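Batch manifest, entry 17 of 40.
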Amino acid sequence: MITIHNKFTRDFTGIGSNLLYPDSCTVQEELNGMFEMTLTHPYDVQGRWKGLQLQNIIVAPTPLGNQPFRIYKTVLNFESITVYAKHIFYDLLDNMAKEFEVNFADPQQWLDTYKQSLVLEQGFTFTAEWQEGTEGTGKGFITKDMNGVAALIEPYQPQNKIQRENRSFISWFEDMTLIRDKWHVHFKQWSEESTGFCIQYGRNMTGLTVEEDISDIITRVYPRIGGGTEEEPIPPYSKEYIDSVHVGDYVYPKVRAIQYDSYDPSEVDDMLYEILVNLVTFDYDQKATVNVNINVNFQMLSRLEGYEKYKDLENVIIGDIVTIVDERTNLKRNARVISYDWDAVAQKYNGIELGTAKETLVHYIKGGSYVPSGL
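Output type: structure tokens
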């Protein structure tokens, strides 16, 4: 059931203002990124389409149940209207987190501080679920006047890793998955266990593309640390450059000079250079290995008679780990769901993307414009 609701609605039970019978309704979500809907509705004689106005809210089935999407763009065509909507989570774009400081905060403490800093009360709740012992934040890191979405999920940038200003939640706690459920914002620590769901050629696989890319790999860094003064400059690294453990995997070292800002000269030594390059740039050497992305289409077997037992295994959501098997190409791999395309009318996946989230893929705002806080 797909329904339209008034822009001021808070409770999304019932049919709202009207039921909708769209020609198509697709939902796309990316891991810790955008969550959007595109809906096309005919000009029906009952006038249901007239409710598809800017700021009104569409409620539609998603892999996480019925979710609300606020319309931000409408396009009137010859025979139908097409609307674009963001998940209600993006109401936080209208909000702002005033300057706040975190000191050795765990994920929930960080979110509590963030909520107190918001200038508008919008009714959101914020929770986190993580394993005890998870590393918290550093001391004295300050977030200054960021919009409510950016403060939570602004994409990670290596050069921002050691800055003491405008660090988003996700840049602190990188192994967390954002789960958006109506007005509730939840961050859950990644599980390394497979869900048990298997997409296999000859059984439920209907399409497969495996992309391997080494374009953005770095295996040798010439570190440059800014800061210091003319009287007390930053001392250089004694070895000139630092290699990844994967430097020998490629024909040539993949070289880049990277600036790390900014430090007190008295704190800088060879150990600091090594830590910065390995942690910030190589990111535990993940950036020195092949990026793999898998696009897969599959038949939901639980919809077919005799396959009802697969229903629980097909409840895959963003961030889950699933298994891909294609014996023709000797492919058997566990990979994380990093995006999906969902048909809200048929209530099935059009496709999912698995693997390593690419910087060009993950963006937390699709419609409209956004200027990163660091620019």
